[in-house]
Amino acid sequence: MGTLFARIGFTRNQYQVSPGLYAVGHPASDAPFLVTANYKLSFDALRFNLDGVDAWLLVIDTRGINVWCAAGKGTFSTEEVIFSVEQTGIKEINKRPTLILPQLAATGVCALKVEKGCGVRALFGPILTRDLPQFLQENTATEEMRCVTFTMRERAVLIPVELYLLFRPFGLFALAAFLFSGIGPDIFSFSHAWQRGLVFMQATILGLFSGSFLVPILLPWLYGRQFWVKGLWPGLVLGALFAAGRAGQSTLLEQLALFLLITTISSYQGMHFTGCTPFTSLSGVDYEMRRGIPFQMLLLMVGFMLWISAPFI
Predict the structure, then answer these.
(1) What value, to the nearest 5°, has the Cα angle with vertex 157 and ends 153 and 159?
(2) Half-sphere exposure of 283 (CA within 13 A, CB side)
(3) pLDDT tens, 139-152?
């Protein structure tokens, strides 16, 4: 249940274990020392894949952040590894231990500096914890163990968190949508707010579905390198279909407004997915946002203006 809630996003920021030294199986003094973050999903993924392996787990304090993100944020760092080695006293177990670091921590940890800082040899293990038993047995990593993948299954796992993060902003957006939809020649109409507001929310949900579900699923086949561009394509298709389906029920201005709304939300959510992928870097995300957000804001403003002005024309 804890894993499920963390995957959905309910407990994502509080799902932690205490930093320190743990044992898996019955490790002797010469057993390997595997380093991980104190994010419980990372901790569980490691220990669940060590069936039949006797090892020590050195859990460092990453403030409850997973290995990859913590390395990028600086909490899974060279200094933190050295501090954990000294605090846990692993040299009392083995005077010359070898630390096996997760490969995704390489952006924050320098193995050579760890050895110089605390006298402990450090090696980078495979990317996936399921490859650790083979790595420990053969004492080497194959090319496949070093390659990052981002399969459809791996992308789909991230969708529930993306949707959960939308709950609060979606509620505020829904309130604003109903208020704006009621504006008309009679100043404000509750019936128009309800009728037009529901249509507006249908378009909003369709845009969220496009950017938060279709973009991750179809990611490799969507044209463009930047994610805000990738997010445009499913939004354009669904926006055109939804607007065409409103023919005879909405004015041409309202149809165009709904089309722009769906396209914009899809593009924004597609861009938001950059933080979940191994394709981008911090500077790359900043570069993309400087180009995507102004375009999205322009489309959103035009769409809102068309939607509000439609009852007056």
Answers:
(1) 120
(2) 0
(3) 888 999 999 889 99
- As given in the structure block, the two tokens for residue 244 are 């065409």
Burial of residue 249 (number of CB atoms within 10 Å: 0-12, 13-18, 19+):
exposed
Angle (CA) 62 64 65, round 5°: 70
Which pair of tokens denotes residue 81? 């590894």
CA 144 to CA 128: how far, in whole Å? 10
CA 16/CA 122 separation, integer angstroms:
24
pLDDT in tens, 9-37: 777 778 899 999 999 999 999 999 999 99
Under 8 Å between Cβ of 258 and 240: no
What residue type is 186 in one-letter code? Answer: D
Q: Identify which of 124, 170, 131, 163 has the alpha carbon closest to the alpha carbon of residue 149.
A: 131
The pLDDT tens digits for 183-234 are 888 788 888 899 999 999 999 999 999 999 999 999 999 999 999 999 999 9
Q: Extract the tokens encoding 276.
A: 């979940």
Nearest to 69 by CA among 274, 254, 228: 274
Residue 280, C-beta contacts closer than 8 angstroms, at least 6 positions apart:
227, 274, 288
**Which residue type does 235 have?**
G
Residue 14: strand, helix, or coil: coil
Q: What's this model's pTM, rounded to 2 decimal places?
A: 0.83
- What one-character DSSP code corresponds to residue 157? T
Phi, psi of 285, rounded to the nearest 5 degrees? -65, -40
Element (H, E) at 245: helix 232-245
**Residue 24 corresponds to which amino acid?**
V
| 137 HSE (CA, 13 A, CB side) | 9
- How far is residue 223's CA from residue 15's CA, in Å, rounded to a whole number? 36
- Residue recorded with tokens 């505020």: 172
